[in-house]
């Protein structure tokens, strides 16, 4: 198995925020960066082929400097195209490339990439090699424990060993299999049961591999426990829906001696960013659609969220109003 100098870097990411289409755009990532200075952030999945052929590359690739460390996630199955994508990711300043072999969407699988590729470890190994050989970034992979009838421990271990030999620096494993016929992507995130034990066994049998666990984790205490067995944890839906629940990542996971931020502090710290976005022709809703999830669990939270949503969808939300509403939150100590 090849282990290179990047392993020491990738091992550092104890907690990451999962790639999620239509969720983890650069605005959401900025919100999360205000919550945690340390968590590894991911882009949404970018189909390598679309990136190569579009003349709007910046739309796919742009991110804010503050977002580092950030991993760009690619979907694809063509080593030649991935080679070009890898070079672009490096030129654009990303910290890491992640290859998606976990997405069960029929659209993605009909293009023969995403989760269906777990049935073709040789092909995935070629893709990883192509990414590795054409940039100096760590290359990591996100996959399931299995797909359809390919769901035994030995097939998982065989897959992982081949990919490790191709040079992958970290394995993020969503601990449920994907069922490609009969379940839609949403069902594929809930119906196949979680099997952390299989991933734990994989780590125990292959202690040199860097393995991050993903799926169904909903609070920091679960992360702390998982870090006894795994090198990292990845959180998706719970962080998107309840970002403030995760306000102590830096203190409790990374041991930083800083103070967790309140919702109002986070929103105030984003005001210059929102102003800049508006100046560049963007709309408040682009950011506020994510921001509203910050406010929950306090009296009138729903009213606050409604006020922000309604005004910003109607394009009537101005910064002064946002500051005024946020000051009310601050007065409540929130
Ligand atoms: C709306 C949504 C979009 C997603 N998009 C992606 C994606 O682009 N790439 C990917 O690898 N996984 C994607 N996922 C899967 C998540 O990254 C994660 O593996 C999954 O939600 C399980 O983690 P969780 O239980 O913490 O949410 C998506 C999940 C959701 C809910």
Helices and strands, with pairings:
Layout (H helix, E strand, L loop, with lengths): L5 H5 L4 E3 L8 H10 L4 E8 H6 L3 H5 L8 E6 L3 H14 L3 E6 L4 H5 L10 H13 L5 E6 L8 H13 L4 E5 L21 H10 L5 E4 L5 H7 L5 E4 L1 H5 L7 H4 L10 H17 L4 H8 L9 H13 L5 H13 L3
Helix pairs in contact: 2-13, 5-7, 7-8, 13-16, 14-15
The structure holds flavin mononucleotide.
Account of the 3D structure:
- By secondary structure, the protein is α/β, with parallel strands linked by helices.
- It folds into 2 domains: 6-252, Alpha-Beta Barrel (TIM Barrel), CATH 3.20.20; 263-331, Four Helix Bundle (Hemerythrin (Met), subunit A), CATH 1.20.120.
- Helices cover 44% and strands 13% of the residues.
- It has 16 helices and 8 strands.
- The chain has helices at residues 6-10, 26-35, 48-53, 57-61, 79-92, 106-110, 121-133, 153-165, 196-205, 220-226, 237-241, 249-252, 263-279, 284-291, 301-313, 319-331; strands at residues 15-17, 40-47, 70-75, 96-101, 139-144, 170-174, 211-214, 232-235.
- It has an 8-stranded parallel β-barrel with strand order 1-2-3-4-5-6-7-8, surrounded by 4 helices.
- Strand 1 (15-17), helix 2 (26-35) and strand 2 (40-47) form a beta-alpha-beta unit.
- Bound molecules: flavin mononucleotide (FMN).
- Residues 18-23, 44-45, 73, 100, 102-103, 142, 174, 189, 214-217, 235-238 line the site of flavin mononucleotide (FMN).
- Flavin mononucleotide binds next to strand 2 and helix 11.
């Amino acid at each position: 198995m090849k282990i290179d100098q990047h392993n020491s870097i990738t091992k550092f990411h104890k907690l990451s925020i999962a790639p999620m289409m239509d969720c983890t755009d650069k605005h959401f990532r900025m919100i999360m960066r205000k919550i945690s200075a340390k968590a590894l952030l991911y882009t949404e999945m970018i189909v390598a082929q679309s990136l190569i052929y579009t003349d709007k590359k910046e739309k796919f690739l742009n991110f804010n400097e503050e977002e580092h460390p950030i991993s760009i996630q690619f979907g694809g199955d063509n080593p030649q195209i991935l080679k070009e994508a890898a070079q672009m990711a490096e030129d654009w300043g990303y910290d890491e490339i992640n290859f998606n072999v976990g997405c069960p969407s029929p659209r993605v699988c009909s293009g023969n990439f995403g989760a269906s590729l777990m049935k073709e470890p040789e092909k995935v190994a070629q893709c990883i090699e192509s990414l590795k050989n054409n940039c100096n970034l760590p290359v990591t992979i996100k996959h399931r424990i299995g797909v359809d009838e390919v769901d035994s421990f030995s097939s998982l271990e065989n897959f992982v060993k081949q990919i490790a030999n191709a040079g992958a620096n970290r394995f993020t494993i969503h601990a449920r299999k994907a069922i490609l016929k009969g379940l839609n992507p949403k069902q594929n995130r809930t119906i196949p049961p979680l099997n952390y034990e299989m991933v734990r066994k994989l780590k125990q049998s292959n202690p040199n591999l860097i393995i991050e666990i993903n799926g169904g984790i909903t609070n920091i205490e679960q992360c702390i426990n998982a870090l006894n067995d795994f090198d990292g944890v990845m959180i998706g839906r719970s962080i998107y829906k309840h970002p403030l629940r995760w306000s102590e990542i830096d203190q409790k996971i990374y041991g930083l001696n800083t103070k967790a931020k309140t919702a109002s502090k986070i929103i105030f710290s984003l005001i210059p960013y929102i102003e800049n976005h508006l100046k560049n022709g963007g709309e408040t809703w682009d950011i506020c659609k994510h921001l509203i999830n910050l406010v929950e669990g306090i009296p009138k939270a729903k009213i606050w969220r409604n006020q922000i949503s309604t005004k910003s969808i109607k394009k009537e939300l101005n910064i002064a109003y946002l500051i005024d509403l946020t000051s009310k939150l601050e007065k409540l100590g929130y």
